[in-house]
Specification:
The chain has 15 helices and 8 strands. The chain is of the alpha/beta class. Strands 1, 4, 5, 6, 7 and 8 form a 6-stranded mixed sheet that branches. Strands 2-3 form a two-stranded antiparallel sheet. The chain is flat and about 105 Å long.
Length: 472
């Protein structure tokens, strides 16, 4: 069809007169450029240390591999196959890889090989955030969220099922052993005792291998049962100490039932306790969003209220948040030369009376409700000497003091900002960055991958705040 309209030249077969320049491929303010420039400025010695042996073929430079990985985690491309495809088809990834096209196995092996160094990457990026003036430690909000492990439910087994399968394979092993002995006797009669006609039946070897794996799973579940029993014993011992103190102060014998101390060595797993053969370190946890159970890890973060930067993080396989506030703040302090935030807020899942008197939190203004939002707080009854009318010889308990504190105008203003500071962090990681499931298995490797995720998150914050950064 003929037309009088003028068009720009379009010829897919046109060869370039000059070699292409990678710097012409992306705009100046593109995130990929920022990732490349940032990783070029940080210390990568933890990654380079694994390449001291000079033997073998030339490897891809860790800076290039890390640039592609970090940008992939920033934009929701984490699969090693998708990363390899992106290095062929996506301009930003081709820019970061300098037009190299590593295979998907190269990305997978790099991620597995350097999982320990990935945690140091979070520290390096955090230092840049602090130098850029994005870390103030005024009001820090702490929160946790569950991220699915790379472990399916079909590869898990309960304690009750373990017992059944162990009995089954022991019976099978015994029967196969008897068959093997009978076969040996027959073959000895044919070839003599020194003959080479006997061998271990394949079925017996499989049964013994499975018995070994079942024994390993049972040992892990028993260890968890002992750990759970130890925590319960500590809780009951604390209650006994309180009773003894009460008797000492009142001079009267306690009338109620005293808790009995369980013996951790005698603890047995529950029939419903689950063990995952895919990732033994993962635990079955409830998903707050879907209300379903899945093998997961519990990621804890401390978010700086002024910028949203992650200033401390811990990854645990414990579903409950109650014991995670101190470890998270200790990680924060280790990154900030021992300095703790002025104000810390967290939801009621973190509340323990011990926290309010813990010497490690001296100087920290805590805002943690003892009760769930919307739940009636058991406030002291003024008619019984509670509330503002407590007699001088009957001071408020730490929980009562915290409730009163949260009811003050300042307490309400501080605590209402907790959601605005902490929860968007997980919203961005799960929705914008698309990270919901770990790719690696085992707590150590998963912790390394979480370091990569949090580093990518803080890098995005650095990128978004370039205009307001004040380098120190």
């Amino acid at each position: 069809m003929q037309t009088n309209k003028a068009f720009r030249s379009y010829d897919l077969g046109q060869t370039l007169l000059l070699p292409p320049d990678l710097n012409d491929w992306l705009p100046e303010d593109h995130l990929a450029r920022f990732v490349a420039d940032t990783l070029a400025s940080i210390d990568l010695s933890a990654f380079l240390a694994d390449y001291e042996d000079g033997r073998g073929l030339a490897a891809y430079h860790p800076q290039m591999m890390l640039s592609v990985l970090v940008y992939g985690y920033c934009t929701g491309v984490r699969s090693s196959r998708k990363l390899a495809t992106a290095c062929q088809e996506h301009v930003a990834f081709r820019f970061l890889s300098a037009n190299a096209m590593p295979r998907h196995t190269t990305f997978a092996n790099f991620r597995r090989r350097h999982f320990a160094a990935m945690e140091s990457l979070f520290v390096e990026i955090f230092q840049l955030c602090r130098e850029a003036g994005l870390v103030h430690l005024g009001h820090v909000a702490i929160d946790g969220s569950k991220f699915q492990a790379n472990a399916g439910r079909h590869r898990a087994v309960s304690w009750e099922r373990l017992e059944e399968r162990e009995r089954y394979y022991r019976t099978m092993s015994k029967e196969l052993m008897e068959q093997a002995e009978l076969q040996d006797a027959t073959e000895d009669g044919e070839w003599g005792e020194d003959g080479d006609g006997s061998c271990l039946p394949a079925g017996l070897k499989r049964a013994q291998d499975r018995l070994a794996r079942l024994a390993e799973a049972k040992a892990a579940l028993k260890a968890r049962a002992r750990e759970r029993c130890t925590q319960e014993r500590e809780k009951k011992q604390k209650r006994l100490d309180e009773i003894a103190e009460q008797e000492r102060q009142t001079g009267k014998k306690f009338c109620g039932r005293r808790p009995s101390l369980p013996d951790p060595e005698q603890a047995e797993p529950k029939n419903t306790d689950q063990y995952s053969f895919s990732d033994p370190d993962a635990r079955l946890m409830p998903d707050g969003a879907t209300k379903s159970f899945a093998f997961a890890y519990n990621a804890q973060i401390a978010a700086d209220g002024s910028s949203g930067v992650i200033v401390g993080t811990v990854l645990t396989h414990h579903a409950n948040d109650r014991h995670q506030l101190i470890p998270t703040l200790e990680n924060l302090a280790s990154l900030n030369h021992g300095k703790l935030p002025q104000i810390v807020s967290a939801d009621n899942g973190y509340y323990k009376e011990d926290l309010l008197t813990d010497k490690r939190l001296d100087g920290v203004d805590l805002y943690i409700p003892p009760n769930k939002p919307g739940k009636k707080s058991p406030m002291p009854n003024p008619a019984e000497g509670g509330g503002d009318h407590l007699p001088p010889d009957k001071p408020r308990s730490p929980s009562e003091t915290m409730r009163q504190k949260l009811q003050t105008p300042k307490g309400k203003d501080v605590y209402k900002m907790r959601k605005a500071y902490a929860e968007p962090v997980f919203g961005i990681i799960k929705a914008a960055m698309g990270f919901r499931t770990f790719s690696l298995r085992g707590r150590a490797k998963v912790a390394g991958e979480w370091g990569l995720v949090t580093a990518a998150y803080n890098l995005r914050k650095l990128f978004r705040n370039q205009g307001s950064m004040v380098m120190t």
